[in-house]
């Protein structure tokens, strides 16, 4: 019962958005405001407290995770729970600067367990801390 953010009923916006969709200014402003609201919600705090980046699966201090839209608002993505994920700064930057195709390739590499990130000693997922 910590869910104080109005939720959109029905379908999550997880299918590719048609190319002819252009988010208008009012839509972008509204969804950004909604995202800000959700950022303050208990739902988001719980979500982020896992400390796990949605994309690379590595663990971070919760304060280092940002909120990311799976489908960007500019592509018609909405600020609903199903479209919002915790994301580390590295992935966030990649997503911003890579072309959608390159980003998809990065995700594919991650899915194969081969992120091209430098090997670091902090990504151990075997600590069963949940
Ligand atoms: Zn990440």
Describe this structure in words.
With 130 residues, the protein is mostly helical. The protein has one domain: DNA Binding (I), subunit A (Orthogonal Bundle). It has helices at residues 25-39, 42-49, 89-97, 100-111, and strands at 66-69, 84-87. The chain has a two-stranded antiparallel ribbon with strand order 1-2. The longest helix has 15 residues, at 25-39. It is flat, with a radius of gyration of 16 Å. Residues 53, 55-56, 58, 88, 90-91 line the site of zinc ion.
**What amount of the residues lies in strands?**
5-15%
Order of helices and strands: HHEEHH
* Rg calculated over all Cα atoms: 16 Å
Compute the number of strand runs: 2
What sort of overall outline do the alpha carbons produce when their principal axes are compared? flat
Low-confidence stretches: 120-124, 126-130
Structural class, please? mainly alpha
Level-2 CATH architecture: Orthogonal Bundle
Q: What is the number of domains?
A: 1
Overall residue-averaged pLDDT value: 81
Helix content: 25-40%
Summed up, the helix count is: 4
Taking the sheet with the most strands, its summary is:
2 strands, antiparallel
Q: What is the fold-level CATH name, i.e. the topology? A: DNA Binding (I), subunit A
Ligand names: zinc ion
Spatial ordering of strands, largest sheet: 1-2
Look at the structure and give the CATH class.
Answer: Mainly Alpha
Distance between the termini: 20 Å
